[in-house]
Amino acid sequence: MLLFNPVVFSILVMTVLCLLRFNILLSILVSALVAGVMYKHGFSGFESGLASGFESFFTALKETTQSLISGMQGNLETSLSYILLGALAAAIANTNLTAILINAMSKFLSSNKVIFTLTIAFIACLSQNLIPVHIAFIPILIPPLLALMNKMGIDRRAVACALTFGLQAPYVSISVGFGLLFHNILKKELANNGINTTISDISSVMWIGGASMFVGLILAILFYSKKRIYKTSKFEKAELDEIERAKSLEMTKKEWAVLAGAVVAFVVQIYTSLLPLGALLGLLVMVVFGGIEYKKVDKIMDNGLAMMGFIAFIMLVAAGYGTILRESGGIDELVKYASLVSGGKIGGAFLMLLIGLLVTMGIGTSFGTIPILASIYVPLCLSLGFGVPAIILLVGIAAALGDAGSPASDSTLGPTSGLNADGEHNHIYDTCVPTFIFFNIPLIIGGIVGAMILG
User: Domain named Putative Na+/H+ antiporter N-terminal: which ranges (predicted)?
Assistant: First the structure.
């Protein structure tokens, strides 16, 4: 029975635990142990006697844990990248650099609602690739603009979609900053499952994901173009004062040093394709030239760990989980079954993307989903006759699906943190539902059509 396949049962356990809002890290760990014990011990392990059954069970538990720990080393580079990028973002957030840059860009904000929303999306894109501050810019940019949005009658659901687009589309499609991190994980996990690619191979097809999301963004802006009235914000005066304060900020030696460090990080990662090296050298430039005070280095690193450390550990555990799924022997059975029920390439592509949507919705991070999905999808894609470009696209988009719309994702939590500063924006109905509809549907369509064209 397919339900008792170690891979299927384990994924179901993980999905249920995540949907029940159980801790994500513990959900993956428990699910990994379930897969390993089912493979090594099985449901019939107690038939030979209770004592020997328990001994066999604990042996399976021990061996699974060892496999999990061994497999975690597959994402050491990724986890280090996350921690160093977190420190880089914390260092930038510790200065007025972001506020100064945002203030300079805000001068170009149009009174036209469509152009205004697209400009917000463009600024959000920079946080993923050019200056990797992730979601740290949102509490600086959005609350001071709420009064202006209210005056213009902008529906904040459109702005939520713009912010989520900027937080996700760049890393899905562009191999810079968090995009390089995402593409490196994709490259490594494909290699772990027998598909050798390069970063240029990945970026040459993953633009389809970004283009699909851009179509969704345009549709969202048009759909939410009607004027929406919000209560006058009790923070409106404070918001306007914050805008005036930002206008008086100027670049100092500290801001120039941090900007230089960000540029170094950007250039090094482009030249070497090594994100940890770029982030490390960027941090050192900041320290040497006074962007980070020497006595505050520990604090910056602590803040970086607080910002990205949890995701880094999820990545480590996800790599171990992927290893256990590959070792379990259940993937071959699952692939044979899926090949039979999928009805060919189109059905198989839809099935994979749908499963990816459910898994990522539960975990809340595209990055942590790749090791899990790649171990299942690569054999399935090969059995259905997909070529390497199509496999890259399907695994990449399947992992990205659900990041938009997941209540636990930074791509939705970040926008809500800014748009709900005055209590007038609901996380589920004003951020998660719109982003789920306008990004996941185009991604599924783009993934299927793109995979069929690529073959």
Answer: 5-108
